[in-house]
Amino acid sequence: MSDEYFVFADVDGYERSSEYTVGGLCPIRIGCVLGSPPRYRIINKLGRGAFSTVWLARDLVESRNVALKIIQADRTSDSKELTILQRLKVSDAEEPRVIQLLDVFEHTSPNGTHQVLVMEPVHPIDFMRYSAFRPIFTREAVHQMIQGLAFIHNRGIAHGDLHPGNLGVAAPEIHQFSEVDIWSQSNRPYTLAIVHSSVDQNPDSFPPYLCGDMDLGKFLLERAPEFTQRPLSIRILDLGNAYIVGESSSPRCVTPMTYAPPEVVFRQQALKDLHAPWDQSSDIWSLALCIHAFICSDGLFSHITGNLLHEMMHYCGEVPNAWRKFIKSNPFPRGKPRPEHADKLWKEREKVFAVRGVEDPPGLVRLLRRMMVLDPAKRPSAAKLLCDPYFTGLQALRAPSAASYLHDPEHATPDFQTNRFLR
Protein backbone atom coordinates (compact mmCIF):
# COMPACT_ATOMS: atom_id res chain seq x y z
CA MET A 1 0.00 0.00 0.00
CA SER A 2 1.46 3.35 -0.94
CA ASP A 3 1.31 6.51 1.15
CA GLU A 4 -1.00 8.18 -1.37
CA TYR A 5 -3.91 6.26 0.11
CA PHE A 6 -3.63 8.34 3.27
CA VAL A 7 -4.72 11.95 3.38
CA PHE A 8 -1.85 13.39 5.40
CA ALA A 9 1.80 13.07 4.42
CA ASP A 10 4.15 11.10 6.63
CA VAL A 11 6.42 13.05 8.96
CA ASP A 12 9.96 12.24 10.07
CA GLY A 13 10.04 10.73 13.54
CA TYR A 14 6.92 8.62 13.06
CA GLU A 15 6.41 5.22 11.48
CA ARG A 16 5.00 5.35 7.97
CA SER A 17 1.22 5.24 7.77
CA SER A 18 1.48 2.76 4.89
CA GLU A 19 2.88 0.19 7.33
CA TYR A 20 -0.62 -0.22 8.77
CA THR A 21 -1.94 -2.77 6.32
CA VAL A 22 -2.57 -6.52 6.16
CA GLY A 23 0.57 -8.20 7.47
CA GLY A 24 1.87 -4.88 8.79
CA LEU A 25 2.02 -3.06 12.11
CA CYS A 26 -0.52 -3.43 14.88
CA PRO A 27 -2.77 -0.36 15.29
CA ILE A 28 -2.41 0.88 18.88
CA ARG A 29 -4.17 3.64 20.78
CA ILE A 30 -3.02 5.18 24.04
CA GLY A 31 -5.11 3.83 26.88
CA CYS A 32 -6.05 0.51 25.27
CA VAL A 33 -5.40 -2.68 27.24
CA LEU A 34 -3.68 -5.71 25.69
CA GLY A 35 -3.29 -9.29 26.83
CA SER A 36 -5.62 -12.22 27.49
CA PRO A 37 -7.00 -11.61 30.00
CA PRO A 38 -6.51 -7.82 29.54
CA ARG A 39 -3.42 -6.82 31.51
CA TYR A 40 -1.17 -4.20 29.86
CA ARG A 41 -2.52 -0.65 29.51
CA ILE A 42 -0.73 1.44 26.90
CA ILE A 43 0.77 4.67 28.28
CA ASN A 44 2.84 6.09 25.43
CA LYS A 45 5.10 5.11 22.56
CA LEU A 46 8.79 4.57 23.33
CA GLY A 47 10.08 3.98 19.83
CA ARG A 48 9.97 1.84 16.73
CA GLY A 49 12.13 -0.71 14.98
CA ALA A 50 12.37 -1.93 11.42
CA PHE A 51 9.41 -4.27 11.93
CA SER A 52 7.86 -3.26 15.24
CA THR A 53 6.69 -0.52 17.54
CA VAL A 54 7.63 -0.28 21.23
CA TRP A 55 5.26 1.03 23.89
CA LEU A 56 5.41 1.90 27.57
CA ALA A 57 2.56 0.12 29.36
CA ARG A 58 1.26 -0.43 32.87
CA ASP A 59 1.16 -4.02 34.06
CA LEU A 60 -2.15 -3.97 35.92
CA VAL A 61 -1.40 -7.31 37.61
CA GLU A 62 2.11 -6.62 38.93
CA SER A 63 1.63 -2.83 39.35
CA ARG A 64 4.77 -2.03 37.40
CA ASN A 65 5.62 -0.43 34.09
CA VAL A 66 6.89 -2.50 31.18
CA ALA A 67 7.90 -2.12 27.56
CA LEU A 68 5.83 -3.90 24.90
CA LYS A 69 7.56 -4.66 21.61
CA ILE A 70 4.79 -5.44 19.12
CA ILE A 71 6.04 -7.24 16.00
CA GLN A 72 4.35 -6.64 12.65
CA ALA A 73 2.13 -9.51 11.59
CA ASP A 74 4.08 -10.89 8.63
CA ARG A 75 7.26 -11.06 10.75
CA THR A 76 5.71 -12.78 13.75
CA SER A 77 5.96 -16.35 12.48
CA ASP A 78 9.65 -16.18 11.54
CA SER A 79 10.89 -13.90 14.34
CA LYS A 80 13.76 -15.48 16.33
CA GLU A 81 13.86 -12.77 18.97
CA LEU A 82 11.72 -14.67 21.47
CA THR A 83 14.07 -17.68 21.33
CA ILE A 84 17.07 -15.38 21.76
CA LEU A 85 15.58 -13.54 24.73
CA GLN A 86 14.62 -16.80 26.42
CA ARG A 87 18.26 -17.89 26.17
CA LEU A 88 19.34 -14.66 27.84
CA LYS A 89 17.13 -14.86 30.92
CA VAL A 90 18.97 -14.54 34.21
CA SER A 91 17.96 -15.53 37.72
CA ASP A 92 16.44 -13.00 40.09
CA ALA A 93 19.74 -12.96 42.01
CA GLU A 94 21.77 -11.84 38.98
CA GLU A 95 22.19 -8.31 37.65
CA PRO A 96 21.42 -8.54 33.93
CA ARG A 97 23.42 -6.63 31.35
CA VAL A 98 20.96 -7.58 28.61
CA ILE A 99 17.33 -6.47 28.46
CA GLN A 100 15.12 -9.08 30.14
CA LEU A 101 11.98 -10.76 28.80
CA LEU A 102 9.10 -10.70 31.31
CA ASP A 103 6.22 -12.15 29.33
CA VAL A 104 5.07 -12.92 25.80
CA PHE A 105 1.64 -13.21 24.18
CA GLU A 106 -0.06 -12.81 20.83
CA HIS A 107 -2.48 -10.07 19.89
CA THR A 108 -4.82 -10.22 16.90
CA SER A 109 -5.67 -7.08 14.93
CA PRO A 110 -7.30 -6.56 11.52
CA ASN A 111 -3.76 -6.68 10.10
CA GLY A 112 -2.99 -10.17 11.44
CA THR A 113 -1.54 -11.84 14.51
CA HIS A 114 1.26 -9.96 16.28
CA GLN A 115 3.78 -11.34 18.73
CA VAL A 116 4.10 -9.07 21.79
CA LEU A 117 7.32 -9.23 23.80
CA VAL A 118 6.99 -7.80 27.32
CA MET A 119 10.31 -6.50 28.61
CA GLU A 120 11.75 -4.34 31.35
CA PRO A 121 11.61 -0.61 30.52
CA VAL A 122 15.04 0.66 29.51
CA HIS A 123 16.05 4.17 28.58
CA PRO A 124 18.35 4.30 25.53
CA ILE A 125 21.57 6.15 26.24
CA ASP A 126 21.15 9.61 24.79
CA PHE A 127 24.61 11.02 25.35
CA MET A 128 24.01 13.90 22.96
CA ARG A 129 21.31 15.53 25.09
CA TYR A 130 21.53 14.35 28.68
CA SER A 131 24.71 15.87 30.04
CA ALA A 132 23.56 14.81 33.51
CA PHE A 133 24.74 11.30 32.61
CA ARG A 134 28.25 12.30 31.62
CA PRO A 135 29.87 12.60 35.08
CA ILE A 136 29.17 8.92 35.71
CA PHE A 137 30.47 7.58 32.41
CA THR A 138 33.15 5.50 34.08
CA ARG A 139 35.23 2.44 33.32
CA GLU A 140 32.62 0.52 35.32
CA ALA A 141 30.02 1.40 32.67
CA VAL A 142 32.40 0.32 29.89
CA HIS A 143 33.03 -2.91 31.76
CA GLN A 144 29.28 -3.51 31.99
CA MET A 145 28.93 -3.17 28.21
CA ILE A 146 31.61 -5.80 27.61
CA GLN A 147 30.12 -7.92 30.38
CA GLY A 148 26.78 -7.89 28.58
CA LEU A 149 28.37 -8.86 25.27
CA ALA A 150 30.35 -11.66 26.95
CA PHE A 151 27.11 -12.98 28.42
CA ILE A 152 25.39 -12.93 25.01
CA HIS A 153 28.34 -14.67 23.36
CA ASN A 154 28.60 -17.25 26.13
CA ARG A 155 24.99 -18.23 25.37
CA GLY A 156 26.03 -18.91 21.77
CA ILE A 157 24.50 -15.76 20.30
CA ALA A 158 25.85 -13.02 18.02
CA HIS A 159 24.06 -9.67 18.38
CA GLY A 160 24.71 -8.26 14.93
CA ASP A 161 23.28 -4.77 15.41
CA LEU A 162 25.36 -2.98 18.03
CA HIS A 163 25.17 0.78 17.80
CA PRO A 164 24.52 3.47 20.46
CA GLY A 165 20.76 3.26 20.01
CA ASN A 166 20.88 -0.36 21.16
CA LEU A 167 22.59 0.39 24.45
CA GLY A 168 20.43 1.50 27.34
CA VAL A 169 20.17 2.16 31.04
CA ALA A 170 17.82 0.32 33.38
CA ALA A 171 15.12 2.67 34.64
CA PRO A 172 13.48 1.08 37.71
CA GLU A 173 12.46 4.55 38.91
CA ILE A 174 9.65 4.52 36.34
CA HIS A 175 7.77 1.88 38.37
CA GLN A 176 6.77 4.40 41.03
CA PHE A 177 4.52 6.20 38.53
CA SER A 178 1.11 4.85 37.50
CA GLU A 179 -0.17 5.49 34.00
CA VAL A 180 -2.29 8.35 35.33
CA ASP A 181 0.78 9.83 37.08
CA ILE A 182 2.73 9.76 33.84
CA TRP A 183 -0.09 11.28 31.80
CA SER A 184 -0.63 14.07 34.33
CA GLN A 185 3.06 14.84 34.96
CA SER A 186 4.43 14.71 31.42
CA ASN A 187 3.76 16.61 28.23
CA ARG A 188 0.78 15.71 26.09
CA PRO A 189 1.75 12.94 23.61
CA TYR A 190 2.72 14.17 20.17
CA THR A 191 0.16 12.77 17.76
CA LEU A 192 -0.40 12.98 14.03
CA ALA A 193 -3.86 12.26 12.63
CA ILE A 194 -4.01 9.41 10.14
CA VAL A 195 -6.98 9.27 7.75
CA HIS A 196 -7.47 6.87 4.86
CA SER A 197 -8.76 8.42 1.63
CA SER A 198 -11.13 5.52 0.98
CA VAL A 199 -14.31 5.05 3.00
CA ASP A 200 -14.15 1.32 2.16
CA GLN A 201 -10.92 0.78 4.07
CA ASN A 202 -11.41 -0.91 7.45
CA PRO A 203 -10.85 1.95 9.93
CA ASP A 204 -9.66 -0.56 12.54
CA SER A 205 -6.66 -1.54 10.40
CA PHE A 206 -4.86 1.69 11.23
CA PRO A 207 -4.82 3.85 14.39
CA PRO A 208 -6.65 7.19 14.51
CA TYR A 209 -3.26 8.86 14.96
CA LEU A 210 0.46 8.17 14.85
CA CYS A 211 2.17 8.72 18.16
CA GLY A 212 5.55 10.39 18.64
CA ASP A 213 8.12 8.86 20.97
CA MET A 214 7.87 9.69 24.66
CA ASP A 215 10.96 11.42 26.05
CA LEU A 216 11.44 8.96 28.90
CA GLY A 217 14.82 10.38 29.87
CA LYS A 218 13.46 13.89 30.23
CA PHE A 219 10.56 12.62 32.32
CA LEU A 220 12.88 10.77 34.68
CA LEU A 221 15.26 13.71 34.97
CA GLU A 222 12.40 15.98 35.97
CA ARG A 223 10.30 13.60 38.09
CA ALA A 224 12.86 11.13 39.44
CA PRO A 225 16.24 12.90 39.58
CA GLU A 226 17.70 9.99 41.52
CA PHE A 227 17.86 8.31 38.11
CA THR A 228 21.08 10.23 37.36
CA GLN A 229 22.46 10.14 40.91
CA ARG A 230 23.10 6.40 41.03
CA PRO A 231 25.61 4.32 39.06
CA LEU A 232 24.45 3.40 35.60
CA SER A 233 23.15 -0.12 35.06
CA ILE A 234 23.77 -0.88 31.40
CA ARG A 235 21.55 -3.04 29.21
CA ILE A 236 22.16 -4.26 25.66
CA LEU A 237 18.93 -3.93 23.67
CA ASP A 238 17.18 -5.08 20.51
CA LEU A 239 18.15 -8.62 19.59
CA GLY A 240 15.85 -8.69 16.58
CA ASN A 241 18.78 -9.29 14.22
CA ALA A 242 20.68 -11.70 16.49
CA TYR A 243 21.21 -15.36 15.65
CA ILE A 244 22.43 -18.51 17.37
CA VAL A 245 25.90 -19.29 16.05
CA GLY A 246 26.14 -22.76 14.56
CA GLU A 247 22.40 -23.23 14.22
CA SER A 248 21.85 -20.83 11.33
CA SER A 249 23.75 -18.43 9.11
CA SER A 250 23.95 -14.76 9.90
CA PRO A 251 21.06 -12.62 8.64
CA ARG A 252 21.77 -9.52 6.62
CA CYS A 253 23.73 -6.98 8.64
CA VAL A 254 21.52 -3.99 9.46
CA THR A 255 24.02 -2.11 11.65
CA PRO A 256 24.55 1.51 10.57
CA MET A 257 27.60 1.47 8.32
CA THR A 258 29.72 3.68 10.58
CA TYR A 259 29.36 1.03 13.33
CA ALA A 260 29.53 -2.05 11.08
CA PRO A 261 32.68 -4.23 11.18
CA PRO A 262 35.22 -3.96 8.34
CA GLU A 263 34.60 -7.52 7.11
CA VAL A 264 31.01 -6.50 6.39
CA VAL A 265 31.76 -3.02 5.04
CA PHE A 266 34.40 -4.37 2.65
CA ARG A 267 32.17 -7.08 1.23
CA GLN A 268 29.28 -4.66 0.83
CA GLN A 269 31.26 -1.79 -0.71
CA ALA A 270 33.92 -3.64 -2.68
CA LEU A 271 32.16 -6.90 -3.56
CA LYS A 272 28.56 -5.60 -3.54
CA ASP A 273 27.60 -8.47 -1.23
CA LEU A 274 24.66 -7.14 0.76
CA HIS A 275 24.44 -10.38 2.76
CA ALA A 276 28.03 -10.35 3.98
CA PRO A 277 28.45 -12.84 6.85
CA TRP A 278 29.28 -11.69 10.37
CA ASP A 279 29.69 -13.37 13.74
CA GLN A 280 30.58 -12.72 17.39
CA SER A 281 33.94 -11.18 16.48
CA SER A 282 32.02 -8.60 14.45
CA ASP A 283 30.23 -7.54 17.65
CA ILE A 284 33.61 -6.76 19.24
CA TRP A 285 34.43 -4.15 16.60
CA SER A 286 30.98 -2.56 16.77
CA LEU A 287 31.04 -2.37 20.57
CA ALA A 288 34.37 -0.55 20.47
CA LEU A 289 32.77 2.15 18.33
CA CYS A 290 29.79 2.26 20.71
CA ILE A 291 32.16 2.82 23.64
CA HIS A 292 33.79 5.68 21.77
CA ALA A 293 30.40 7.25 21.08
CA PHE A 294 29.39 6.60 24.69
CA ILE A 295 32.33 8.73 25.81
CA CYS A 296 32.54 11.33 23.05
CA SER A 297 28.92 11.82 21.96
CA ASP A 298 29.79 11.11 18.35
CA GLY A 299 31.12 8.41 16.08
CA LEU A 300 34.77 7.71 15.39
CA PHE A 301 34.21 7.54 11.65
CA SER A 302 32.55 10.07 9.39
CA HIS A 303 29.18 9.46 7.79
CA ILE A 304 30.75 9.71 4.34
CA THR A 305 30.60 5.97 3.77
CA GLY A 306 32.67 6.15 0.57
CA ASN A 307 35.72 6.89 2.74
CA LEU A 308 34.82 4.42 5.48
CA LEU A 309 37.24 1.65 4.52
CA HIS A 310 40.05 4.18 4.20
CA GLU A 311 39.32 5.53 7.67
CA MET A 312 39.29 2.02 9.13
CA MET A 313 42.69 1.24 7.64
CA HIS A 314 44.17 4.52 8.85
CA TYR A 315 43.05 3.89 12.43
CA CYS A 316 44.38 0.32 12.29
CA GLY A 317 47.59 1.22 10.45
CA GLU A 318 47.42 -1.76 8.10
CA VAL A 319 45.89 -3.02 4.88
CA PRO A 320 44.51 -6.55 4.43
CA ASN A 321 45.92 -8.41 1.45
CA ALA A 322 42.37 -9.26 0.40
CA TRP A 323 41.65 -5.55 0.01
CA ARG A 324 44.54 -4.78 -2.38
CA LYS A 325 42.48 -4.96 -5.56
CA PHE A 326 39.94 -2.55 -4.08
CA ILE A 327 42.73 -0.17 -3.01
CA LYS A 328 44.22 -0.06 -6.50
CA SER A 329 40.96 1.24 -7.91
CA ASN A 330 40.26 3.45 -4.88
CA PRO A 331 43.57 5.10 -3.93
CA PHE A 332 44.01 6.70 -0.53
CA PRO A 333 43.15 10.42 -0.62
CA ARG A 334 45.37 11.15 2.42
CA GLY A 335 48.32 8.84 1.86
CA LYS A 336 48.87 5.20 2.72
CA PRO A 337 48.05 3.82 6.17
CA ARG A 338 51.08 3.49 8.45
CA PRO A 339 51.35 2.22 12.02
CA GLU A 340 52.89 5.52 13.10
CA HIS A 341 49.98 7.40 11.55
CA ALA A 342 47.53 5.22 13.46
CA ASP A 343 49.47 5.91 16.67
CA LYS A 344 49.12 9.64 16.04
CA LEU A 345 45.36 9.37 15.46
CA TRP A 346 44.90 7.46 18.72
CA LYS A 347 47.05 9.97 20.61
CA GLU A 348 44.55 12.59 19.51
CA ARG A 349 41.76 10.39 20.87
CA GLU A 350 43.59 10.22 24.21
CA LYS A 351 43.45 14.00 24.45
CA VAL A 352 39.73 14.01 23.70
CA PHE A 353 39.14 11.32 26.33
CA ALA A 354 41.08 13.34 28.89
CA VAL A 355 38.91 16.40 28.24
CA ARG A 356 35.83 14.20 28.72
CA GLY A 357 37.07 13.13 32.13
CA VAL A 358 37.80 9.52 31.18
CA GLU A 359 39.65 7.45 33.73
CA ASP A 360 43.07 6.47 32.30
CA PRO A 361 42.71 7.67 28.69
CA PRO A 362 45.79 5.72 27.47
CA GLY A 363 44.32 2.56 28.98
CA LEU A 364 41.02 3.09 27.22
CA VAL A 365 42.83 3.66 23.92
CA ARG A 366 44.75 0.40 24.35
CA LEU A 367 41.47 -1.41 25.05
CA LEU A 368 39.76 0.01 21.96
CA ARG A 369 42.74 -0.81 19.75
CA ARG A 370 42.61 -4.42 20.94
CA MET A 371 38.98 -4.53 19.85
CA MET A 372 39.47 -2.70 16.56
CA VAL A 373 41.65 -5.11 14.60
CA LEU A 374 40.84 -5.45 10.92
CA ASP A 375 41.30 -9.22 10.94
CA PRO A 376 38.28 -10.58 12.89
CA ALA A 377 40.22 -13.74 13.82
CA LYS A 378 42.68 -11.61 15.79
CA ARG A 379 40.14 -9.76 17.90
CA PRO A 380 40.01 -10.98 21.51
CA SER A 381 36.79 -12.48 22.78
CA ALA A 382 34.55 -10.43 25.05
CA ALA A 383 35.44 -12.84 27.88
CA LYS A 384 39.14 -12.01 27.51
CA LEU A 385 38.41 -8.29 27.30
CA LEU A 386 36.81 -8.44 30.75
CA CYS A 387 40.29 -9.05 32.12
CA ASP A 388 41.91 -6.20 30.20
CA PRO A 389 44.35 -4.14 32.31
CA TYR A 390 42.03 -1.15 31.88
CA PHE A 391 39.68 -2.78 34.38
CA THR A 392 42.30 -3.72 36.97
CA GLY A 393 40.98 -3.06 40.45
CA LEU A 394 37.33 -2.89 39.47
CA GLN A 395 35.12 -4.61 42.00
CA ALA A 396 33.12 -6.04 39.10
CA LEU A 397 36.09 -8.22 38.15
CA ARG A 398 35.69 -10.12 41.41
CA ALA A 399 32.02 -10.89 40.74
CA PRO A 400 31.27 -14.58 40.07
CA SER A 401 29.49 -13.69 36.84
CA ALA A 402 32.74 -12.58 35.21
CA ALA A 403 34.29 -16.03 35.59
CA SER A 404 31.28 -17.64 33.95
CA TYR A 405 32.00 -15.83 30.68
CA LEU A 406 35.23 -17.72 29.95
CA HIS A 407 33.93 -19.16 26.73
CA ASP A 408 36.18 -18.27 23.84
CA PRO A 409 35.06 -19.67 20.49
CA GLU A 410 37.62 -19.52 17.73
CA HIS A 411 36.86 -17.38 14.70
CA ALA A 412 38.56 -18.80 11.64
CA THR A 413 39.08 -16.54 8.65
CA PRO A 414 42.14 -18.11 6.97
CA ASP A 415 42.00 -15.95 3.84
CA PHE A 416 42.23 -12.70 5.83
CA GLN A 417 45.86 -11.61 6.22
CA THR A 418 47.26 -8.16 6.71
CA ASN A 419 50.32 -6.25 5.65
CA ARG A 420 51.59 -3.80 8.25
CA PHE A 421 52.89 -1.65 5.38
CA LEU A 422 51.28 -1.21 1.99
CA ARG A 423 54.14 -1.36 -0.48
* Distance, first to last CA: 54 Å
Which overall shape is indicated by the principal axes computed on the Cα atoms? globular
What is the C-alpha radius of gyration, as a whole number of Å?
Answer: 23 Å
Question: What fraction of residues sit in β-strands?
Answer: 15-25%
Kindly name the structural category: alpha+beta
CATH architecture of the domain at 1-120 and 174-229: 2-Layer Sandwich
Binding site for ATP: 69
Domain Protein kinase: 40-391
Pfam families: Pkinase (PF00069)
Keywords: ATP-binding, Kinase, Nucleotide-binding, Serine/threonine-protein kinase, Transferase
Keywords summarizing the entry:
423 residues; Protein_kinase_ATP_BS; Phosphorylase Kinase, domain 1; six-stranded antiparallel sheet; ATP-binding; alpha+beta; three-stranded antiparallel sheet; kinase; protein serine/threonine kinase activity; Prot_kinase_dom
